[in-house]
Amino acid sequence: xxxxxxxxxxxxxxxxxxxxxxxxxxxxxxxxxxxxxxxxxxxxxxxxxxxxxxxxxxxxxxxxxxxxxxxxxxxxxxxxxxxxxxxxxxxxxxxxxxxxxxxxxxxxxxxxxxxxxxxxxxxxxxxxxxxxxxxxxxxxxxxxxxxxxxxxxxxxxxxxxxxxxxxxxxxxxxxxxxxxxxxxxxxxxxxxxxxxxxxxxxxxxxxxxxxxxxxxxxxxxxxxxxxxxxxxxxxxxxxxxxxxxxxxxxxxxxxxxxxxxxxxxxxxxxxxxxxxxxxxxxxxxxxxxxxxxxxxxxxxxxxxxxxxxxxxxxxxxxxxxxxxxxxxxxxxxxxxxxxxxxxxxxxxxxxxxxxxxxxxxxxxxxxxxxxxxxxxxxxxxxxxxxxxxxxxxxxxxxxxxxxxxxxxxxxxxxxxxxxxxxxxxxxxxxxxxxxxxxxxxxxxxxxxxxxxxxxxxxxxxxxxxxxxxxxxxxxxxxxxxxxxxxxxxxxxxxxxxxxxxxxxxxxxxxxxxxxxxxxxxxxxxxxxxxxxxxxxxxxxxxxxxxxxxxxxxxxxxxxxxxxxxxxxxxxxxxxxxxxxxxxxxxxxxxxxxxxxxxxxxxxxxxxxxxxxxxxxxxxxxxxxxxxxxxxxxxxxxxxxxxxxxxxxxxxxxxxxxxxxxxxxxxx
Length: 667
Hints:
It contains 21 helices and 17 strands. The chain is α+β, with helices and mostly antiparallel strands and 667 residues long. It has a six-stranded antiparallel β-sheet, sandwiched between helices. The protein has a six-stranded antiparallel β-sheet with strand order 9-8-7-12-11-10.
C-alpha cells in the first residue's frame, strides 16, 4: 500500500471513531494496527500524534455532553420550580437527577427539624436501608452535620475511615447498613456570603471508594441551590396561603360584625320607635321574640309573668306568626294565668335566682336551657327577660337580648310610676267608698268611671294583712301584684284592700294573692276574699265581710293562707253578710237528706237524737223507740256517707248547728 494512502486510511479511521462516539480505548487500536501493517518512522509518529489529538477531542466532546446533560437537568429543575405545585415532588426530582448526573448509587436530602432541634432525612433515592432512611443528625455530627454547621461542601472517598467527621454510633450504623463508602454533601443555602442561611443539605453517595471531582461538587451545589429555592418558594407560598386564609377570615369577621352592627342599629331603631309610639312591655317582648327568633316572656321581680309568651319565627310556638303573643309562659317558669291561678313557687324562685346571677354578672345567663337577663333600674330588680328556643345565642344576638332589657326597664319604670300615681287617686276613691258608701253613690260611681273602674260591675274584694314589722312592704307588693291588670289596691285600717280584675271565686283569688304576696313581701300574708259585689254599698259590705273573714283566719291559725266566708263552714254563716243558712244546711246535711229521700230512712232524725242525747246510744234508742242495734247501724251508714271523721269535734259542731238551723227553718 502506498505510504500516503496508508496514513490517510488510519487518520480516516480516527475520524470515524470520533464521529461514532466510540470509547477511548478504541482509539489506541488505530496506532497498533498501523504498526502491524508496517507503518513506521515519521508516518507512525504522525498517526500516534493524531490519535492523541483525537483522544483530546473525544474527551472534550464527552465533557461537553456531560455539561449539556447537566444544563438540561438544571433547566428541567428550573422548569419544575416554575410550575411548583408539590414540594415533595420537586425535591424527589432534584435528588433523583443528582444521583443520575453524578452516577452514584444513592442520593438524599436532609432538612432541619426546628421543634426537635436536629436534622432528618426528607427525601432519599436509591436507598435500601430503613435504618439509614430514618437517621437523625445533630448539628456537627457526621459529614452532614459538618456541612450544615460550616455551610461548605464536604466529600470523602471512604466515610468509615475519614476522621475529619464526628462519628456517632447511630450514624455509623446507618451508613454501614446502607453500605455507603464515598459521600459528597453540599449545603442548601438561602442568600450568599456571610448572610447565607443553611436550610438543609444534599448528598450523593457510592457503595465503593470514589473521589468526587470539582465539577461534580459544583453540579451538586447547583442542584442544592435549586432545592433551596424550591423550599423557600414553597414556604413563601404556604405563608401566602395562610395569610390569604387569615385575611379571608378577617374579612368574614368584619362582614359579620358589620352585619351585626347594622342589625343592632335596626333593632335599636325598632325598639325606640316602639317606645315612642307608646308600646307596652308585651310589645317589646313580641319585638325581641321576632328579632331573635325565639320565645320571650317578661317576668316581675318575684318570678311571675307580666306578659304572655311572645313567639318568634324560630321559637317553640313555631306555628304562631312572628312577633305574635301566645298565652303560655316558658316551661319551668310559670305563674299567674290571668285568672288568679298560680304556677309553681319553686319555679318562680328558680327564676329569681337566675335573675340575681344575671345582675351579679351584668350579662344574660343560661338557666335550664333558657337565657335569663335581669331588668334593672340602677340596682333595683324590676324583673327579668326569659328567652327560650335559642340555646346557641351568639355574641351579637346576646348583646341585643341584653340591650332589650334596658328598654324593658324604662317601660316598667314608666308603668310603675303611672300605676303608683293612679293608685293614689284610686286609693282616695276606695277610702271614700269604705267610709261613706251611702253619702254620694252616684258620685263615687262617676269618680270610679273616670279612673277606669266600673263600680257597678261585679268585683271581688280581697283584704290582706301581714306582720307589723313588714306592713309597709304590703302596699307596694299589692301594687306589684296587680301590676299589668285593671285591678286597684289601697291601704285601709292597717290592712290592704285589693280589687283584682279576675273571674275567679273569692277563695281561689284569696289563695292566689296570699301565695304571691307572701313571696313578694318575704313574710306570711293572710288574705280573705268576698263578693263578687256591684255598687258602692255592696262593695263596702263585701269589704266588711272579707275583714271579718280575715280576722277568723287569724283566730283559726291560718296565718299566711287565703280563704273566704264560704270556705269557713258555720263561721262563714256567722261572718257572711247574707247569712246563707239554707246553703250551709244543704252543704252540711245534703248527702244525708238525699239518702233519706231516696231510701225512706231516718238518718237525719237518728243523728239529731244521737246529738240531743249527748252521744248516748241507750238514750237515743229510747227516744227513737228502736233497738240499740238499729241506732248503731244507722250511725254506721252516716259514717259511710259523711266520712270516718264525721264525729270529730269540729265536724260534730257543724252538724249540730246545721240540724238546729234546719229545725228552726221547718218551724
